[in-house]
Amino acid sequence: MSHMDLALGIDIGGTNTALGYFDRSGRCLGATSIPTRSDQPPEACILRLHAAAQALLATLPGAPRLAGIGVGAPNGNYYRGTIENPPNLSWGQVDLRGALSGYWAGLPIAVTNDANAAAFGELLFGAGQGLHDFMVITLGTGLGTGIVVNGQLVHGHSGFAGELGHCIVEPGGRPCGCGLRGCLETYASATGLARTARELLAAGPATPGGLDPEALSAQQICAAALAGDPIAREAFRITGTILGRKLADAVALTSPEAIFLFGGLAKAGELILEPTRRALDENLFHVFRGTVQVLPSGVPEGHAAVLGAAALIWKELDPSCVNRSDT
Amino acid sequence: MSHMDLALGIDIGGTNTALGYFDRSGRCLGATSIPTRSDQPPEACILRLHAAAQALLATLPGAPRLAGIGVGAPNGNYYRGTIENPPNLSWGQVDLRGALSGYWAGLPIAVTNDANAAAFGELLFGAGQGLHDFMVITLGTGLGTGIVVNGQLVHGHSGFAGELGHCIVEPGGRPCGCGLRGCLETYASATGLARTARELLAAGPATPGGLDPEALSAQQICAAALAGDPIAREAFRITGTILGRKLADAVALTSPEAIFLFGGLAKAGELILEPTRRALDENLFHVFRGTVQVLPSGVPEGHAAVLGAAALIWKELDPSCVNRSDT
Question: What predicted TM-score, i.e. pTM, was given to this entire model?
Fold first, then answer.
C-alpha cells in the first residue's frame, strides 16, 4: 500500500491550539499550533484550524491519507462530541464534532477532555505503558485530570469524569471561573501559583531584587525559585501541599499506581514534586502508603495531549490497539 | 446434573459475620450469622465460621456442591486475599484466603473489601443492574465505598480502592481509628452520627423528654428524628451535609450515574438523603449537575454484601457472567 494512514490530533487550549499528524505507532509526521483567540467565536478558530491543518498536510511527503481526527478540549464531552462551558474558555456550549464535520465531511472524529487525551497519550506512548491504574494531572492555566482504571480511560456516566480541579479544597476560598469557590485549580495551577506568590509578596516585607508582583508569571516564579528566592520557593511549597492533600482523596478512591504531573508547572521538578509527595503521604490512609508514585509525565511536553487525541481516534477505529486488562 | 452448584458468600463485619449460600442467579438457599468477636484472634472466628457454614450446608436439600467462596471484609485485599489492619477490626494483618483454605482445601476463594462486595451485589442483582458507572456507600460503624467504572469493580493498583471514608473532611478534626484526623467516616457513619448528636446535646440546653446523651445509638437518633426531635434532625442534617460535600469530590473524579447509600444509616431515608443531595449539588462542578442520583440501595438490607461476595466468586469462576461494557 503506497498511502500511509495518519490521524490528526488537536489540543484546544485557552491560549493556543496545537495540532499534529501521527501514524499508528505514535510517530509525529508534522505539528504546528495556532492561537486559540477565545475572544472570537469558536467558528473563527475552527476555520483557522482547518486552514493550518490543510497547509501542514500539504507539506507531508507521500500523499498520506487522513483516517480520523481526535480532539482534546477543556470540558470536552466524549459522548456528545461537544465542549460545554469550560471555565477557562469563554465559548459556552460548542458542537465541536459537528463543526469539524463541516470541514472534514465523513471522517471519524472523537472528542474528549484535554486531560483525558493526555492520559491516553501517556497510556499508549508514555510512562503509563503497561500500567493498569494511573492518573495524569495537567497543571496549566487550570488543573485537568485524566484517569485510567483497569487499563481503560474513565469517561464516567456524564462523559466529563476527571475534574479534580473543581473539587473544593478551601470552602469559601478563591473564586473559580466555574462559579464555585476554593476549587483546587485556583491554588494548584500556573494561575494559582502566581496568585499565591502575589499574596506572599503583599503580606511580607519588600525583598530587594526579588519578584515583581506587577508582572508575575508561573515561569518567572519557577526561575526565581530555582535561583533560590524564598518567596518563590514558599509559593511552590504551598501549591504542592494543597495539591498533595487533594491527591490523597483521589488515591483513596481509585488507588492508582502512579500520578503523572504534566504541563508548565510540572517543569519545576522537585520544587513541586517534593511538597506534593509529602502532603500526599501525610494525608493518605495507611493501606495506600508506598503504593503510589508521583512522577513527571513521560511524554514530551509539546506532544502529550495532541498525541493522546490522535491515539483516541486510532482506538475508535480499532479498539484492539489498546490492550485491555481483565479485572 | 443432579447436584446444584452453590457459592458461599461471607461478609465479615466489626460486630457480626454474615454468611449464606447462593446459586448463580443470586437466589439465597440459606443464610445465617455469627458474632465476629474481634476481641478474640481471627482464627477463633474462622473456626466458628466454618462450623456454622457446614451446619447450614447440611440443612440444604439436594446435596448441593460448593463451587467456591467469596468474602467481603474491611480492608480486604483482592489481590493478596488478606485483611490488612482495618480501623474497625483489631486483627491486624490476616491471611484470610490462607486461613479459609485450611478448612476448605482446594476450593476457589476470593476476598475483597466489604463495600466492594456490596457494590458487586448491587451490580449483578440490585439497582446497579445495567449501569456502567456507579458507587455504593455503606454507612455502618464506618463508611465503605465500592466503585464501578465501565461496568467493572475498581480494585486499583493496591487492591484497596474505594476508601472515601478515610478522606479528610475536617483537617485536625475528629481522631479516626486509622490514625488520621477528620476522616469522613468519623462524621458520616452510625458512630459519627451519634457523636454529632452528643456534641449537639452538650452544646444546647437540655430538652425535656429529648435524647439521652448517655445511651445514644444511631438507631435511637433515627427514631427520635422520625418523631420530630430537633436535635436528632439537626444531627442528620449535619451528617448528610458533610457526606454530600465529599460525594461532590467523588463525582468529579469518576462521574457515576448513581450513588447508592446502604446500611443502617441509609434506613433513615430522606432524613439523610435530602441533606446529602443538597450539599452534593451545592458543591458540584456545573457539568455534573443533574447527571447523578443519590438513592437507597436496591439490594435487601441483610443480603447485599453476602450476595455480592458470593457473586464475586461466580465471576472468578466464569468472567462472562458479568457483561463488560466497551468504553
Answer: 0.91
Among A150, A156, A285, the residue with its CB nearest the CB of B256 is: A156
The residue type found at A77 is N
ipTM: 0.90
Contact between B255 and A155 using a beta-carbon 8 Å cutoff:
yes
Task: Tell me if residue B94 falls in helix, strand or coil.
Answer: strand
Sign of CA dihedral B236, B237, B242, B248: positive
Which amino acid, residue A153? L
- Ramachandran region of residue A152, left (φ > 0), alpha (ψ -120 to 50) or beta? beta
Q: How many residues does chain B have?
A: 327
Contact residues on chain B for A287, CB-CB shorter than 8 A: 75, 84-85, 158, 160, 163
Taking CA–CA distances from A257, the nearest residue in chain B reads B157
* All domains of chain A in start order, with CATH: 5-121+302-321 (3.30.420.40), 130-296 (3.30.420.40)
| pLDDT tens figures, A86-122 | 887 889 999 999 999 999 999 999 999 989 999 999 9
Q: Give me the pLDDT at residue A151, please.
A: 93
Which chain B residues have a beta carbon less than 8 Å from that of A133? 156-157, 161
In one letter, which amino acid is A142?
G
Burial of B104 (0-12, 13-18, 19+ CB in 10 A): middle
CA A39 to chain centroid: 21
Element (H, E) at A80: none
Residues in a beta bridge with B94 = B83
**Interface contact A149-B156, CB threshold 8 A:** yes
- A293: enclosing H helix or E strand: strand A293-296
